[in-house]
Design brief:
Elements lengths: L7 E3 L1 H30 L8 H26 E3 L16 E6 L5 E7 L10 E3 L3 H6 L7 E6 L2 E11 L2
Helix pairs in contact: 1-2
Amino acid sequence: MEIKMDKEPITSNGLNKLKEELVFLKEKKRPEIVAAIAEARSHGDLKENAEYHAAKEEQSHNEGRITEINDIIARANVIDVTKINNEGKVIFGSTVYLEDLDTGEKINYKIVGRDEADLNQKLIFFQSPIGKGLIGKNKSDLVEINTPSGTKNFEIKDVKYI
C-alpha cells in the first residue's frame, strides 16, 4: 500500500463520514468477522474450509480499509468553506451551479476531496477534469472543459459556500 505524507484536502462533512465508517469497521464489522472466523474454525480442517478462508479474506479487506482511513484522517486538511470569505470564486468545498451551454441542462457540483467524490451525489473530485476546469473560475464565467466524453461548455451561474 502506498502511503502519502502530504496533506489531503477534505470537507468537514467528509471527515465526519470517514470517522463514522472507521467506528463501524472497528466496533461492528471487526467483531462480526472474528466471530465468523471462530465459527468456521470450529468446523475442523482449515485447508478445505471455504467459510474460514472467506472470513479471513474479509478480515484482510476490513483491516486494510481501517489502515487506509486512519492514514486519510492523519493527513486530512479540513477546509471549512463556510468560514472562507469569498465572492463568487470556485474553490475547494464550494458548490458550483452550472448551465451546460450545449444542452441547456442545469447542474451543480460540490468540489471535494478524493475520498468524498461521488458523481451520483454531485460530489466531484477537485483533481478531476471538471474539478480542475472549475477551480479558480468565477460566477458568470464561461468555461470549456475537456472530459473523457468530449468537450463540455458551461456557464457558471452561481457559486455557494455551504
